[in-house]
Amino acid sequence: MAVEKDDPELVRVLLKAGVRADTTGLLDRTLLHEAQSSTVARELIKRGIPLNARDSIDGMTALHVAARHDRGDVVRELIRAHADIDARDRNGDSPLHLAVQRCNQQSTELLLRAHASVAAANSSGRTPLFEASRSGRSDIMGLLIASGAEAKARDRNQATPLHYSAQSRNPETVRLLLQSGADANSRDELGRTPLHWLARELREMMADECVKEPHDLASRQGDIARMLVVSGADVSATDGDSATPLHYSVDSCVPAVAEVLIRSGADPNTRDGQGRTPLHWAARGWKTETVSLLIASSADVNARDSNGYTPLHAALCEYYKAQKDDSRAKAGEPAVLELLRGGGARLSTKEQGEITRLRKQALWRERRNRLSHGFMGWIVEETVPALICIVLPLLYVVAAVFLRLWLAHAQPSSAVLVTWGMVGYGCLGLLAGGWVAFTIFLVQLGRSRGYAFGGGSLTSIITPGCFLGVPIGLSLGYILGRPAYASSVWYYTPVATLGALLLAIAIPTVRALLL
Fold first, then answer.
1. pLDDT at residue 191 above 80?
2. Which of 65, 210, 214, 510 lies 20 to 30 A from 19 at CA?
3. What is the largest CA-CA distance in the chain?
4. Span 243-287, pLDDT tens digits
5. Is there a domain that residue 443 lies in?
C-alpha cells in the first residue's frame, strides 16, 4: 500500500522494519512493478529488488509496466539501474512497444536514448514503428525513424508500416514513411496494397460514422490517397480476390477516395473475381454519391457479373431483403434505384423473375406485419385458422351424438353404419390432412418459389385436403365404421375431437415458426 500510494517515507520505515523488498503480491508482481515515483523506485533498487522479475499474467517486467503507464521518472531510474530495456513479455512486446502503443512520448524518448532496439519484433512480427503507424502519432513515428526504424519492415501478414499508416487517418504519418523509403506498392499476404487498406478502412469507418463528420474523415483519407498515388501507387492493383482499391472505396457513403482513384486513371468498369464492377459494390450498399460518381465516369450500368446479374439487380435484392428489419428500406426505395434506371439500367428476364419473387415475399411480410398489429390483426391472422380447426370437429361431435341416439333405437345395416363412419372420419381426415399438407409441403415449397399463404385462406386448407385428407378419412371411416366397432363410435369421437383441438393450437405455432 505504501508503494502504491507513493509514500517514500513509509516505504523506508517499512523496509528498515524488516519488510522484504522482494515481496510479491497479486499476479506475482514485485514492489518495483507498483512504484509510482523515482524516489520509491530508488529505495527499492537500493534494497536489491530484482530488476527484471516478471509478473505471472503477461510476463511483464517493472520496466514494461512503467513504460506502459508513462511513469517517466521510474523508467529513468530503471534504465540507470541497468534493467533489461529489450525484455519481452508473453506477446513479444518490449517496453518500447508498450510505450509507443500507449503514445507515451516521454517513455519513448527515454528508451530510445538508452538505445532500445527499434528493430525488435513482437509475436505478430510488428516492430515499434508498426505500433506508431497504427496509432497515427507522427511525432512518435518521427522519433523512431530518426533512431533507425526500418520503414520497409514486414509483419507476419507481410504488411508494412505504410499499410497500417494508410488506415491511421493522419496524412502526416504516411508522408513520413514515404519520405523514409516506404514502398507505395508493397503487398500483404492477401495481395493488398496500402491503397487497398486505405479504401477498406474508409468503408468500415463510414459504416460506423456516416453521421459523424463523414466528409472531414473522407477528406483526410482523400489526402492520403493522393500522397500514395503521387508516390507511384498503382490504382489498378488487384488483391487475391481480384478487387481493386476502387472496389473497396465505392462501398462508403462519401466518395472522396473514389474520386482520387478515378481521376488518377482507375477503370470504373474493372471486375473482381466474381465479375462484379465497382458499380455492383456501390449499388449493393445503396451508396448514392458513389453510384452517381461512377455513372458520371462512364461506368456500365448494365454490366453483368459472373452470375449474369446487373448493379440494378444487386440494389433491388438488397432493398427487398432489407424490408424485413431495415429502417432504410421502410423509408421507401433508395435513390440509387432512380439513378441506375435514369442511367439506362435494365433487368434481364431472369433478374425480373427473381425480383418478382423477392417482391412477393416482401409484400406478404408487410401484410403479416400489418395484421400482427392490434387485436383484430391477431384475430384474423391466428384465430380464424384455429376456429376452422375447431368448428369442423365440433360439427362432427354433433353428428356423432345423433348417430349414438339413432343406434340406441334402431338396428341399421352394416352398409349404413359404414357410410356414417366414412362421412364422419372423412371430415376429420380432410381437416388433419389439409393442415399437415399445408404446413409441411406448401409453406416450404411456396416460400422457396416466392409465394406465401394467408392464415385464413380456405384454399390453403381445402386444396391439399382433397388430395390427402379424403383418402385418410375414407380409410379411417371404413375401418372404424365396421359393425364390430359400431358400439364404440361414441368413444372414438372425444379422441378425434381432442386431436383436432391440439391441431388447432399447434398449427398456428408451427406456421409462425416456418413463416
1. yes
2. 65
3. 117
4. 999 999 998 767 889 999 999 999 999 999 999 999 999 998 888
5. yes
Give the residues across from 30 on adjacent strands: 24
Backbone dihedral angles phi then psi of residue 238, each to the nearest 5 degrees: -115, 145
Q: Residue 427 domain-assigned? A: yes
**Residue among 163, 281, 170 at smallest CA distance from 219:** 170
CA distance 288 to 298: 16
Q: For the residues of 251-289, what is the DSSP string, one character each?
A: SSSS-HHHHHHHHTT--TT---TTS--HHHHHHHTT-HH
User: Both ends of the chain: CA-CA distance in Å?
Assistant: 63
DSSP state of 381: I
**Domain span holding position 488:** 374-514
Number of residues that this document lists for the chain:
515
Kind and range of the H or E run holding 42: helix 38-46
Overall domain count for the chain:
1
With 70 as the cut, is the pLDDT of residue 196 above it? yes
Return d(Cα 336, Cα 398) in angstroms, integer: 62
**Alpha helices for 264-374 (secondary structure H):** 278-284, 288-296, 311-322, 327-330, 335-342, 349-372
Q: Is 479 exposed, middle or buried (0-12, 13-18, 19+ CB in 10 A)?
A: middle
Distance of alpha carbon 325 from alpha carbon 214, whole angstroms: 25
User: Which residue did the predictor score with more confidence, 346 or 365?
Assistant: 346
| 453/446 Cα distance (integer angstroms) | 8
Q: Give percent above pLDDT 90 in the chain.
A: 40
**Helices marked H in 47-153 — which ranges?**
62-68, 72-80, 95-101, 105-113, 128-135, 138-146
**Phi, psi at residue 24, to the nearest 5°?**
-110, 150
Angle at CA of residue 228, ends 225 and 231, nearest 5°: 150
Asked if the structure places residue 146 within a domain, the reply is: no
**How do residues 132-183 score in pLDDT, each as one tens digit?**
999 889 999 999 999 999 999 999 999 999 999 998 889 999 999 999 999 9
This model's pTM is above 0.70? no
